Amino acid sequence: MAKVATRVAYGDALKELMVENKNVVVLDADLAGSTKSGEAKKVDPARHFDMGIAEGNMMSVAAGLAASGKIAYASTFAMFATGRGFEQIRNSIGYPQLNVKICASHAGISVGEDGASHQCIEDVSLMRGIPGMKVIVPCDYNEAKQACKAVAEIDGPCYVRLGRSGVESVNGDDYKFELGKGVVLQKGEKVALVATGLMVQEALEAAKKMETAPTVVNIHTIKPIDKELIVELAKTHDKIVTCEEHSIIGGLGSAVAEVLAEAGTACKLVRVGVQDVFGESGKPAQLFAKYKIDADAIVEACTK
Amino acid sequence: MYCDEKFVIMYAQKGDNLNIMENKELALHAKNIRRNIVKEVYSAQSGHPGGSLGATDILTELYFEEMDINEENLNTLNRDRFVLSKGHASPALYAVLAEKGFLPEEELTTFRAINSRLQGHPNMNYVEGVDMSTGSLGQGISCAVGMALANKLDKNDHRIYTVLGDGECQEGQVWEATMSAAHYKLDNLCIIVDNNNLQIDGHVDEGMSVYPLDKKFEAFNCHVINIDGHDFDQLRAALKEARETKGMPTVIVAKTIKGKGVSFMEDQQGWHGVAPNEEQYHAAMKELEAE
């Protein structure tokens, strides 16, 4: 099956949402073609607002639309959405708990050639810290499309992390996205690979290379995180290896560490992710290898 | 020079209707509101009296003449709405809501206290009539742009008003918001700049000049009116002109005196975010006694 980027799923979700829900409005900051929010424009141009290269303003304008009863989807690259727009998200959207869905694309180092300035590896950390903000990192087209639609039904602010690069399908056609519920993709022993976003594919790839088949879990919702499942994994495995295309600080690895520490469950934890460094230009696969987040790196992490 | 006197005088001369009775009533409301502002800040022993007193006449004109807002439509989107972009002037907003009867007056003394609905900066989820949570400068105007866009989309003819500080105009977001308001031709949005030329650290024109404000907003494709922000005739005429202006947002640059109404607070940098002591409180209340 052809690889499809999760941002494409966002565009397809918007096409349906625009028809199904007249309250949906979409904002973008001059990147509607890249984020795929432009798909909404094709359905109803009056409900798609290009706010220019001014992300802070876009976030607060989205808040104003939400305060008027709209479900506002705001999109740009993850770097500029959560970085440039952080304080607007925090104060205009988060504090009043307004109905804004920040669907940010081009997250992580898989952005590739654009380099570190555009490779956001801090967004999950930033969004996770905002009270009441839900954080979702879909792993494939099907999950991303369902998640982008599901957030319209959730009252309050949500962050959906989307990628630039094509990813293979992990979930079957009958897959049903459920907020806050981790998905056990395969059951194994000793090691549990707990992955999010496009790292779910890397984890599955790694599992194929290992002598003893590990358990592989997709944690698509980083907040609220599936505590029950993680504690269960800790009790039934010797080691948990978290896999994320994000800094190991503040993302999935940190969230899992918090759950384990508070549960008092003794289980070794290894965090595969970007090790507190910036990325660089290159092809995604080259970057995954160099920054040790590809399948081989996950296999290696399992021996630590 | 932070405001072109010549334009303000010209605008005053435009005054075709001297509403003596209305103005007297408005002045009484404004006096009550100012008394309550002083009371709030004194009770809390913190807060921002200067900018609240200075913006009082603007808010009084908005809430007691201009805006379509009443007990019946308060809890709906089917009314005019107001965003206090300079959220630190919350004592003025709470006092206005109390003067309108939307908020129990006795609650004002809980301002900034633990468990109070009256947060240091306004929270829209706590108080009916607070239309947006503000406090971080530059963001309220953008939220107002979003509300104005929503009204256009919904063919809701109600208007959106926002009051900014002049110091606030140092925030880049104010200009992003203005650019977008003009781009989307938001003639249902009225932006009022409370132009007192003072910010925490001193005079705006000395610290980081934002002037000329009128020419800047004009260059951003807004209709601009310079007025005296304490003159009800000028406020009334400017808001009418804003309502009648089509195809672009209107910006009213209202020249004000920070701390207006309490002589020892007037035009004093030191009264930006300081509460009066007991002696100062009584002196202020004496000045603000009803005639």
UniProtKB/TrEMBL annotation, chain A:
Residues 4-170 form the Transketolase-like pyrimidine-binding domain. Keywords: Thiamine pyrophosphate. Its cofactor is thiamine diphosphate. CDD domains: TPP_PYR_DXS_TK_like (cd07033). Transmembrane segments: none annotated. It comes from the Bacteria. SUPFAM superfamilies: Thiamin diphosphate-binding fold (THDP-binding), TK C-terminal domain-like. Belongs to the transketolase family. This is Transketolase, pyridine binding domain protein. It comes from Holdemanella biformis DSM 3989.
TrEMBL record, chain B:
Pfam families: Transketolase_N. Its cofactor is thiamine diphosphate. InterPro entries: THDP-binding (IPR029061), Transketolase_CS (IPR049557), Transketolase_N (IPR005474). One of its GO terms (molecular function) is metal ion binding. The keyword Transmembrane does not apply. Residues 30-284 form the Transketolase N-terminal domain. It comes from the Bacteria. Keywords: Metal-binding, Thiamine pyrophosphate, Transferase. The keyword Metal-binding applies. Belongs to the transketolase family. This is Transketolase, thiamine diphosphate binding domain protein. It comes from Holdemanella biformis DSM 3989.
